[in-house]
Structure formats: C-alpha cells, structure tokens
Design goal:
157 residues; mainly alpha; elongated; 2 domains
Length: 157
C-alpha cells in the first residue's frame, strides 16, 4: 500500500507545476491583479480580512481558555466555574448576613417539605420504611443518652 501511494505521488509530482501564489490563493484575480490596481486592492482586502479573521479567532480562543487572565480579562464561563476565586468579594454586613440566614432557613424548610411530600406519596416503599426505622434508632439513642445523663446526675449528687 505504501509503495502504491509513493508511486502515485512521484508520478504526479514530476509533472510541470504552473501554479503560483496568486493563482493558488485568489485564482485568476490574483494574477490579473498585478496589472490592474482595482483587482489588486480587492486582493489586499481579502488578505486583510483573512488575517484579521484569523487573529480574531485565535484571540477568542485564548480569551475563552483563560490565557488573558493576568491582564484582568476573565470570561464569564470561568467566573461561573469558581465564583469564590474570580468574582468580586461579597461584603458581609448585618443586612446581608440576615438575608443569607433567611435564605438558608427557607432552603432547609423547602427541602423538608419536599421530602415529607415524597414520603407521604410512598408510605410503604422500602426507602420510607428504612428512613422511619433509622429515625426510630436515632430517637432511641437520644433517649438513652438522656436517661444516662439523668441517672448520673441523680447518683452523684
């Protein structure tokens, strides 16, 4: 297979090549642009558009990957990945602390309500029975600890 490809490559490469840079990139407009100033300026326009598009693409890729972070240019995708590292520090005052506490408490209540609704829908599922048993074990341990505390309190007084 390699030999076959090598023979084909050598066969086609020995033929006379007639393409130059102008005709390769811009076709006949590039070769004709040597004599015609309007076509030559169009050729330069295409070259500048190609160059600026390439630079823009490379710049966008560098920006998106976080390469320009030392210059202070950080994309939002990186900010969203690690808000503690990249976003402005959040100043905590009494008002903000109260807001955070209320949000935390409401999130806990919402989670408890959601779990209670799920358990109410499936009272006799394996998971619900397991959760009730675990809750009973936990309550038994708490009661045992309370009893032991009271016994020690009254024995050593």
């Amino acid at each position: 297979m390699r030999l076959f490809l090598t023979v084909i490559l050598l066969t086609f490469s020995t033929s006379s090549l007639k393409a130059n840079a102008f005709s390769e990139i811009f076709g006949s407009e590039g070769a004709a642009g040597l004599n015609n100033s309007k076509i030559r300026s169009l050729s330069y326009t295409f070259q500048y558009l190609t160059l600026s598009g390439s630079i823009g693409y490379v710049g966008k890729q560098l920006f998106d990957s976080g390469f320009m972070e030392p210059l202070g240019l950080v994309p939002d995708t990186i900010n969203n990945l690690s808000p503690l590292a990249y976003k402005n520090p959040y100043s905590i005052n009494s008002h903000n602390a109260q807001i955070l506490a209320v949000k935390d408490q409401s999130n806990k209540l919402n989670l408890l309500n959601k779990l209670n609704n799920q358990l109410a829908e499936k009272k006799f599922s394996v998971k619900a029975i397991e959760l009730r048993n675990n809750s009973n074990f936990y309550k038994s341990l708490v009661n045992l600890n309370d009893r032991n505390f009271l016994i020690e309190k009254y024995l050593y007084e």
